[in-house]
Amino acid sequence: MTTSSEKQPTKKLNTWLPLLFSIVAAIGILIGFKLQDSIKPTTAKPSVFPITGKQEVGKIEEILRFIEAKYVEDVDQEEIVEGIINEVLQELDPHSTYIPAEDLKGINDSLEGSFDGIGVQFLIINDTILVVSPVAGGPSENLGIRAGDKIVAINDTSVAGIGITNAAIMAELRGEKGSEVKVGIMRGNNPEIIPFTIVRDKIPDYSVDASYMLDEETGYVKIGRFSGTTYEEFMKAIEKMNEAGMKDLVIDLRQNPGGYLQAATKIAGQLFAEKLLLVYTEGRTQRRSEYKSTGRNFYDIYEVVVLIDEGSASASEILAGAVQDSDRGKIIGRRSFGKGLVQEQYNLSDGSALRLTVARYYTPSGRSIQKPYKGEDNAYDNDIVKRYENGELEDSDKVPVNDSTQYYTRGGRVVYAGGGISPDIFVPLDTVVNNAYFTKSSQYIVEFVYDYLDGNRQQYEQYESAKFFANSYKISDQLLRQFTDFVAKKGVEKDSRRFNKCKSLLSNRIKAYIARDLFQSEGFYTVLHKNDRVLEKAMEVIKKEGKAKPQASF
């Protein structure tokens, strides 16, 4: 399960942390009582927080009463308790977290794959809400709201130029299904405000970002996370591509932080025509639980390639590990994140929740996916930065060996554990992304594109499909000059030497965002993949491997 952001203790809390740490052990007892009804008894070694009755709980209440009655300043007891809980959980592992009640619904919605709202993807640019795209079939699209529209008013109140935040926008636009919200829209350079009254509805929060045919026989699926609807989305994508002649499949899990275990195992199961172990979990109080393919895959798939990188975590690593350990296909890219801890969520009486690590993931060969997390402060959080610094992202020989134990795939190949999934074929990070000019200027591409399209959208109406646009449209030198002038006004000093080195990459990114405005995510990825070395290697491998016997459907 993906992790959530934690509410950190405030500075005021830090003034008397010594007192609070004296009752940390007692808080552990409280957590134990909370979980007694949810966790089965175990014969494992005794808890480090032995539960001896209500006396310890009463001690906590007694201390809190003294603080409330006698402490020199006013204190917020809820803040104290939440702060202590966070301190306790930070001592356990990086993924055990406390979720305040006010954050729980949003986190659950992202995992369930839907929410109630008006159905638009938006960005805040120049303190203005810009519609990136309306959700297909949603209430906004049905009313005629378009990509590039600016939302300048909500319920007759101006929201432009007031410093509005993403959280505030979602609070205004999301709401109970069937309820109404009024929005004022500005379109293009027309100063007239167009009023819309939108009836909120159930909005799908898609986790499959894109799916399309790379060529006549190769399908591509980009999975952004594993939610409650991912398997259904994946199967719809496969069905459509199968009808188009798909034989081989590329599954892109780069920058996928994970999500539901069952979504990953159900997708992995569709790659096998026999019953095989995909992953198992085991913990101190949890017996080994195995997840296997059913042997009932619906479509014939020949070659399989899975793309991963340092942002691929948890459920992404489960799917990649199952494919690798069974020798079902090739894993291409860079070493994955290394998150192999299993969390279960326990809802608390006040509407908050505890997400507690209860087990570890193991690939079919017995490898633990989890990278080390004990040691120097912030080492775990800064791991990706260290990969940049030690050169691992550019040279596979610099990948550290955390565990030299040899494990074996189904076909007898040696693989290793100790920190994520290492790819079968390493593709280094493009060093151009570290170009100083690209790093500084690329953050303004989205703003530039939508500013540019405000007055030039009509000239792109001739492009009827994402593929036609990707193959025929070229970024002109004039448009690139406009971009360099634009970012110069933002404070990015012109640098012709560095610009020339990253010119091709900048052109590709600008074109990709224009395509996203015209054809949503399919357009974005279709263009982006024209300059994608990892995907190029995947296609090379598929063509080189030839056509193996497919995992036949039943």
Structure overview:
- The chain is α+β, with helices and mostly antiparallel strands.
- It has 4 domains: 11-91; 114-204, PDZ domain (Pdz3 Domain); 208-429, 2-enoyl-CoA Hydratase, Chain A, domain 1 (Alpha-Beta Complex); 432-535, no CATH class.
- It contains 18 helices and 21 strands.
- It has helices spanning 11-14, 17-21, 24-35, 55-70, 77-90, 101-112, 139-143, 166-173, 230-243, 261-269, 315-325, 383-389, 436-441, 445-456, 466-472, 477-489, 496-528, 533-545, and strands at 97-99, 114-117, 120-125, 128-134, 150-154, 157-158, 180-186, 193-199, 201-204, 208-213, 218-223, 248-252, 277-282, 289-292, 304-308, 330-333, 341-347, 353-362, 406-408, 414-416, 425-426.
- Strands 3, 4, 5, 6, 7 and 8 form a 6-stranded antiparallel sheet that branches.
- Strand 7 (180-186) and strand 8 form a beta hairpin.
- Helix 3 packs across helix 5 (77-90), helix 9 (230-243) runs parallel beside helix 10 and helix 14 packs across helix 17.
Q: Could you name the ranges where pLDDT drops below 50 across 5 or more consecutive residues? A: 1-53
How far from one another are the termini?
A: 31 Å
The helical percent reads 25-40%
CATH topology of the largest domain: 2-enoyl-CoA Hydratase, Chain A, domain 1
How much of the residues is beta strand, in percent? 15-25%
CATH architectural arrangement of the largest domain: Alpha-Beta Complex
Q: Just give the CATH class of the largest domain.
A: Alpha Beta
**Name of the CATH superfamily of the largest domain:** 2-enoyl-CoA Hydratase, Chain A, domain 1
What's the β-strand tally? 21
User: Any idea what the shape is?
Assistant: globular
Overall SS class: alpha+beta
Number of helices: 18
Tally the structural domains.
4
Kindly state the mean pLDDT as a whole number?
A: 84
Radius of gyration: 26 Å
Main sheet: strands, sense, barrel: 6 strands, antiparallel
